[in-house]
Amino acid sequence: MKRLWTYLLGTICLHLLLSGYTTHFTQPIYLDVPKGWPKPFYDTQKNPLSQEGFELGKALFYDPILSRDNTISCASCHLQATGFTHVDHDLSHGINDRIGTRNSLALINLAWSKNFMWDGGVNHIEIQPLAPITNPVEMDESLENVVNKLQKSNQYPLLFEKAFGTQKITGQLTLKALSQFLVMLVSSNSKYDKMIRKEATFTVQEQNGYELFKTHCASCHQEPLFTSEKFENNGLAVDATLNDFGRMKITQNPNDSLKFKVPTLRNIQFTYPYMHDGRFVSLTEVVKHYNFGIIQSKTLAKQLQKPMNLTDKERVDLVSFLLTLTDNDFLFNPKYSFSKK
After folding, report:
1. How far lies 261's CA from each of 237, 245, 247, 299, in Å?
2. Is the pLDDT confidence value at 9 over 60?
3. What CA–CA distance (Å, rounded) separates 76 from 256?
4. Is the predicted pLDDT of residue 36 greater than 50, yes or no?
């Protein structure tokens, strides 16, 4: 019997070899879903994750080849140590120092997101990179040109072969590779997470801040992702220069006026400046806004229609809690870092 199986296996392998078929093997990796977290929206069955796909996606993420003049990469606006966003200016900058219209969002726990961008203009992570690639003030490139540049390079045909079994590079495979890197950016090991797992305890100040957070903030910044994934008007005055009305630009619905995506608060200590236009540079400013700076309007979130009326001490306690959302293991994990081989 053993000889028969050996013969059959050898015959099959010989047939595949003679027919020109080459077997493609990858090392599978898995999206870690922390205990108590909801099911991710991203379907890994349609884009099976592999170590080779992840490494290819990471190479693309850090490579300025995605931009028209080869100067701007995804990482130019999404730095790992700052929660995969930028901190050196309020609005994103693109090629030729062109200035964008919004502050870049942090790239954290994207597998749990259904909508992307501040206005939800993109509804799938595999399409999302097209927005910055084709935006004239960001990368100002086309996916077709990106594919051509990748195909002519020395390294990428081999990397695509390792990840997908073919040296023929396509736009779809390029976007799938980027997605494999992005969905693995999971932040779940902050002091807050350790407290939830009973591996750490809060100080009195942090616990007071946590109670205040649950009372005043958690309806929009829902645990454990610290976002509701909804679009809300949080009472900001319209910037007279940008004249940005948020979600309404996409839906053309007046009820969406001044509504922007509720961002995650994870690693908020390092993801400044804050808000869609980067108008606040500190958490103290943010808390002050919600305490007594809200502009009343027809589309203002219901949760914000009554002021918080926090004391000075309570505002300090709330910020103290927000600092417990910092995940140093995520911010400095070499797995996500650029490495020139």
Report:
1. 16, 12, 8, 14
2. no
3. 31
4. yes
The CA distance from 190 to 324, in Å, is: 6
pLDDT exceeds 70 at position 194 = yes
Q: Does residue 310 have a pLDDT over 70?
A: yes
Distances (CA, A) of 341 to 37, 53, 180, 221: 35, 16, 20, 40
Nearest to 327 by CA among 207, 212, 200, 228: 200
> Which pLDDT tens digit goes with each residue over 198-231?
999 999 999 999 999 999 999 999 999 999 999 9
Token code pair at residue 229: 């994934």
DSSP string, 175-243: HHHHHHHHTT-----SHHHHHHTTSS---HHHHHHHHHHHHHTTTTS-TTTT--S-EEB--PPPPTTT-
- pLDDT reading at 6 higher than 80: no
pLDDT confidence band for 21 (50 / 70 / 90): very low
Written as one letter, the residue type at 175 is: L
d(CA 228, CA 195): 21
Please give the pLDDT value at position 224: 97
Residue 251 near residue 309, CB atoms below 8 Å: no
Q: Which residues contact 80 (CB under 8 A, 6 or more apart)?
A: 331, 332, 333, 336, 337
Tokens 């086309």 belong to: 142
User: What gap in Å lies between CA 130 and CA 141, rounded to an integer?
Assistant: 9
Cα distance between residue 247 and residue 233, in whole Å? 10
Q: What does the block give as tokens for 266? A: 């994870």
Helices and strands (DSSP H and E) totals, the chain = 12, 2
User: Which range, of 22-31, 113-122, 329-338, averages the lowest pLDDT?
Assistant: 22-31
